[in-house]
Amino acid sequence: MANTRVLLKKSSVASRIPTTSDLEYGEIAINYADGRLYYKDSSNNIKYFLESSQLSTASTLDDVTTNGSTTTNSITVGGLTIDSLYTLPTADGTNGQVITTDGSGNLSFVDQSGGSGTNYSYGVTVTTDTFTGDNSTVDFTLTRGALDDGYAIVSLNGVVQDPGEYSLSANTLTFATAPALNDNIDVRIISSGSASQVNVNYTRFVFSITSTESTLSGVDDNGETLLYDPNSVEVYQNGIKLVNGDDFTATDGISISFTDAVLNTDTVEVVSTGAQVPILTTNNIDENTATTTTTTANQVIDSWSATTYRTAKYILQAVNGSDVHSTEILLNHDGTDVFITEYATIYSNASLFTVSAQLNGSTLELIATPANTNTTFDLVRTLLVARTAPTSSGDMQSLSGSEDLGSGSGSEDLN
User: b/e per residue, 52-88, with b = 16+ CB within 10 A?
Assistant: First the structure.
């Protein structure tokens, strides 16, 4: 009986790849110049197997299972490209860096921006939406629409996306390619509106891991004891942002529990923006009118809670006949004494009043002594809340919210 040989479709030309019309389902082809074995999958795509010697050393994968056999230490893969979409860095970044994309699938380590300090930006609101990919949905409905792509920050699994990977129309975010199954989608929309100012305590902790750890707490590399707001915390492992609830749990404010333990030589960064304390709220800017009928000294023309508020600024106007007297006043208190200054004073003819302030129990009173009867006082008042100095390692002013600043008016006769 003659020897029967089975021959594969083959090529000796480097980088030559069979087309879908070259192969039937179940048929294979070999390029023995490249060391690749090609086949056609059920979606009519050409796929291939690599020769084992082409796996070089660079990025490390732990506990890999192949053909039912598990490698419990590690194997290494050089120049790793994931599904032809993302190319990972071939070298580690420096401490505190994060991974970013150029929009073409090339990932690299960069220095992250931001930090403690003072930032003032009036009328800014940041709205956050989170979704989970299902490998088919491309449209996601947002709580708030963006003016354009420049007012949106879109992240997939902690990696900020290039605007070319998505589009925005009203309240709809549309991806060019559907996020994969279980991808974590984070969308932050920046918009303007009337301001509600808050104080934010910003703290950053850095831990250099020296052994396998499932829980992180205590003192960091800079001697700071871990303390965070569970409602506003971000965790990074070797520069990659972890997903709260999936990758870690942070509930008690003093420790972080990891789903997969962090390892020796890892760097973990914990960022907490702390509890937000409102400084300007709905009724902090107000108007008032008071008319005096006598020249009695020290008549109360405005008052507010000294327990809730610490500082006030006034624009005050007094009118008597055709005479007008205007001034600005800035005052604060320490719970016992009131400190006041008057400036930018102008009047059309003569001074119509003198002004001072006093604490009456838990109420601060602005008082005036008019020079004439039937003097009408109009004022605009701005209040700042009473607060104590932050105890965390950083303090940063920021602005958020979209409330309209309230106003009110009224009149009273003071005798």
Answer: eeeeeeeeeeeeeeeeeeeeeeeeebeeeeeeeeebe
Q: Do residues 61 and 46 touch, judged by C-beta distance below 8 A?
A: no
Would you say 393 and 116 are in contact if contact means Cβ atoms under 8 Å apart? yes
pTM for the full predicted model: 0.33
**CA pair distance 275, 272, nearest whole angstrom:** 9
Per-domain residue ranges of the chain: 9-54, 59-110, 124-194, 199-277, 280-387
Q: Give the span between the Cα atoms of 228 and 211, in whole angstroms.
A: 23
What does the pLDDT profile of the chain (415 residues) look like in tens digits?
566 777 778 888 888 899 988 888 888 888 888 888 899 998 899 988 877 666 554 344 445 444 445 555 445 555 555 555 667 787 888 877 778 887 777 888 887 654 333 344 444 567 888 999 999 999 998 887 776 666 788 898 988 888 888 888 878 889 999 999 989 999 888 765 444 444 445 678 899 999 999 999 999 998 888 888 888 889 999 989 999 999 999 998 899 999 999 999 999 999 886 544 444 444 455 666 777 778 888 899 989 888 888 999 999 999 999 999 999 999 999 999 999 999 999 999 999 999 999 999 999 999 999 999 889 999 888 888 776 544 444 443 333 333 333 333 333 343 3
CA dihedral angle for residue 199, residue 267, residue 86, residue 51, rounded to 10 degrees: -170
- Looking at CATH, the fold of the domain delimited by 280-387 is given as Immunoglobulin-like (2.60.40)
Q: Please, is 399 exposed, middle or buried when counting C-beta atoms within 10 Å of its C-beta (0-12, 13-18, 19+)?
A: buried
Pairing of strands 107-110, 276-278: unpaired
Contact, 414 vs 377, CB < 8 A? no
**CA gyration radius, the chain:** 33
CA-to-CA distance for 249 and 270, rounded, in angstroms? Answer: 12
